[in-house]
Write a structure and sequence with these properties.
- The protein is α/β, with parallel strands linked by helices.
- The chain contains 18 helices and 12 strands.
- The strands form 3 sheets. It has a 5-stranded mixed beta sheet with strand order 2-1-3-12-6. Strands 9-8-10-7-11 form a 5-stranded mixed beta sheet. Strands 4-5 form a two-stranded antiparallel ribbon.
- The longest helix has 25 residues, at 2-26.
Length: 422
């Protein structure tokens, strides 16, 4: 009896060893990754790769840095032609374009629902990469938004930090008028040829250019209408400094010409780059629209990682993403402090980096605030044609400052959008 049991144990041990060797052999490939931005996405992925390689030295990584447009073009070309052998194992996709790829190329990306626990991620990030109940991506960075404001300018106008907490956009405009009257500073920089501000406001009320089923929703879209009305009020109140393009917009606040900035958390590094402004900034939740379902939380931008279904290293790529991006809390502390990246894994906010006071923001726990707001971002359906509809919205934004009736603007946007997505 003893001998038989002992032999069984030996056999079981041999089987386990063989299994381990097979697993190791299977995970001995090179994982190729496409992404953009050497100082953010590329640098962060290199950090993730080094962490995984430290535990799995048999795995190597080839992280290829392309321009964002080149990544999208190469991905689109390969998927359209069916030449999947030209694809990488992992590719970075902007969240706004996720559904377009998933719906246009079914079966092109690995389904991850059964291999990764998505319950710990910000819900809005998981929903945007879900199709027919299955999840296809690994949530990465968030564009959770905040209202950055100059404490010194607000104080000169008679306002305290608590006066900026949980306000409405109408109140924001009132404050803006007083700030300009007392300090000569405009309240915000605004590019009327960019719909980013509209998208922030619209999502804060749980709306998007499409309804929950992905159908175009423009004319009867209460969230979009309220967003356009708010931008029109700002323009007509003349509390903004006009900006043409990204560089001019950034200069409105880095130069000290405006009192606030409303955008994604990724702008924090740019704000903090102005050393002479240290201690003068604060961060509050974004103002709320006056519409049913409105909140003080929203999102602008963000991307996620996708594993190509035809990858020869598919299992290895999934294991890598799962081990680092879904479980490594210390990784998220590192990319926060070094790159200003707020990840989508909610457990990361319990790490030490998130709870640190930031001297630049006069001792505020800025990262903790953003991580709290992250969990409150409304989930919406970005649909297949966000970029196309965004173009239609942008084309009609200048008319807001000329006093065009909002219903007329919505009708014009709807007409143009219908033509662009046919």
């Amino acid at each position: 009896m003893y001998r038989k049991t002992n032999l069984s144990r030996v056999a079981a041990g041999a089987l386990a060893a063989a299994s381990l060797l097979a697993s190791t052999a299977a995970f001995a490939g090179e994982v190729t990754i496409w992404c953009w931005d050497p100082n953010f996405n590329v640098a962060i992925m290199k950090e993730a790769a080094s962490r995984y390689s430290a535990k799995h030295p048999e795995t190597t990584f080839n992280i290829v840095d392309f321009a964002k447009a080149d990544v999208e073009q190469k991905l689109q070309t390969a998927l359209s032609s069916g030449t999947t052998d030209a694809l990488p194992d992992i590719v970075l996709i902007e969240d706004y374009g996720a559904q377009k790829y998933l719906q246009s190329f079914p079966g092109a990306f690995a389904e991850l629902s059964s291999k990764i626990d998505f319950s710990g991620f910000a819900p809005y990030k998981v929903q945007l990469m879900t199709m027919d109940g299955a999840v296809y991506g690994m949530p990465f960075d968030s564009g959770v938004t905040g209202l950055y404001y100059r404490k010194d300018y607000l104080e000169q106008a008679g306002f305290k930090p608590e006066d900026m907490q949980n306000i409405t956009w109408d109140r924001f405009i009132e404050i803006g008028k007083q700030v300009e009257a007392k300090t000569g500073k405009k309240m915000l920089g605004l590019d009327v040829n960019d719909a980013g501000f509209v998208r922030i406001l619209m999502q804060s009320a749980g709306g998007w250019y499409f309804d929950k089923d992905g159908n175009l929703s423009i004319e009867n879209n209460a969230a979009l209408k309220a967003a356009l009305e708010t931008e029109q009020k700002i323009l007509q109140a003349n509390i903004h400094k006009p900006a043409a393009g990204w560089t001019e917009w950034v200069a409105t606040f880095t130069s000290g010409d405006v009192a606030t900035v409303t955008t994604g958390v990724w702008i924090t590094g740019t704000v903090k780059a102005q050393a002479d402004q240290s201690g003068k900034w604060g961060v509050a939740p974004i103002p709320k629209l006056d519409v049913e379902g409105a909140s003080h939380a929203s999102n602008l931008g963000g991307s996620s990682w996708y594993v190509t279904a035809g990858s020869a290293e598919k299992d290895e790529a999934i294991d890598f993403l799962n081990e680092v991006y879904a479980k490594d809390i210390d990784f998220y502390q590192r990319i926060l402090t070094e790159r200003g990246a707020v990840g989508s894994l909610l457990a990361a906010r319990n790490g030490p980096a998130y709870s640190e006071a930031d001297a630049f923001f006069d001792g505020e726990k800025v990262w903790q605030n953003f991580s709290d707001w992250l969990a409150k971002v409304p989930a919406v359906n970005y649909g297949v044609f966000t970029n196309e509809v965004d173009t239609a919205v942008t084309a009609h934004l200048p008319s807001l400052g000329q006093g065009a009736p909002i219903d007329d603007v919505l009708k014009a946007v709807d007409s143009q959008a219908q033509g662009q997505i046919q």
